[in-house]
Amino acid sequence: MSVHSPNPALILQNKRWNGLRNVLEREGPFCKDDFSASSDNLEFLQTNCKLLVIGAGGLGCELLKDLALMGFGNLHVIDMDTIELSNLNRQFLFRRTDIGSSKAECAARFINGRVPTCRVTPHFKKIQDFDETFYQQFNLIVCGLDSIVARRWINGMLLSMLRYEDDGSIDTTSIIPMIDGGTEGFKGNARVILPGYTACIECTLDLFPPQVNYPLCTIANTPRLPEHCIEYVKIIQWDKESPFGVPLDGDDPQHIGWVYERALERANEFNITGVTYRLVQGVVKHIIPAVASTNAVIAAACALEVFKLATSCYDYMSNYLNFNDLDGIYTYTYEAEKSEGCLACSNVPQTVTVDDPNTTTLEDVIKQLCDSPRFQLKNPSLTTVMKDGKQKTLYMSTVKSIEVATRKNLTQSLGELGLQDGQQLTVTDVTSPSAMIVQLKFQGNEIEMV
Length: 450
Ligand SMILES: [Zn+2]
Description:
- The protein has 450 residues and is an alpha/beta fold.
- It has 15 helices and 13 strands.
- A hairpin with a 7-residue loop joins β12 and β13 (436-442).
- It binds zinc ion.
- Zinc ion binds next to loops.
- Zinc ion is lined by residues 200, 202-203, 338-339, 342, 344-345.
- Pathway: Protein modification; protein neddylation.
């Protein structure tokens, strides 16, 4: 072998990416304006382009595999969960010996060992553990989440990171595109969100299936559904009474039996019917079917959008793909529109309309914030500035001592609390990293003015 022979490993390495080179090193009629065919494109994917994958579960495993094999060389992954036996049928980066270990760490180790051109950095944490400076380092963010709250939170984070020019237009360098995948059983969707430009998560909040998590205030104070009674026993009563001295196990018939009896008692107390043993099982175990093939299709659609956005080699999807493989395969893509009054991306002040401030209690307002399709808050805390300029905490459930101190406000009317028409409330909730201003609008006053 002469010294001038190319290194066999290098030849193999070059062949490995032939498919990508065909796309990235040749011009085509569908390339975006800022695309220039060159070997730099592949190099960018492998060295400079930095992606964040949120979630290392069913979708996350597929996403990491797809992106690593598509030439991306610098991935980060966040997941707060550990591996369970029931994950192994579809979360293929994990093995039996990984049970109990961090999903993010095991997934990263597997990809790093298998795809030498890719380096995955794991974060065994919650997304809420990171701030703006962390998220800023990424070119793109891909979500494979099963939680709407987490999606709303990261959506809020990316919107809060937007910077504006003097004329009010968005500084385009501050936009981090978010590609969001979601699956439930045989249904799935993939979407491209350019924060500030295209419909965000909150713009289309009404598209999400009915919430499985009920607002804590409803569960604790005003249950209406059998599910509320079951959730109450599961979330509050179990920990308080600790009947078996261990955490609730959805597979233990004794545990389910106990929850069933207590939920039935609570349902009777509030004249609610429909608590059955079967329903208790469903609510306690959060049974959401997971179908591996749906995950694979949705993750592939997301990875393709990441590739197009990162390289400009083709126009990205605009902007919402629906997929269903329950009976054959059905799919369509449409352009979800920005909502003019969007909670997160519109800058339009949000109002809560109150019929009569003398009969409407603070709890009624909180209920509206939880139940209305526009807000869908989970566990809001409310503060305001009173007429005398003093800051007042109206209700806060996240800090035990403050909850106790402010609980009495719940049953007081807005009039009794000294709140005025047009009063601004500062509302914080787990669904967003930043506080939201909500203005009270008293219907009675408006009619008088007319
Ligand atoms: Zn929006």
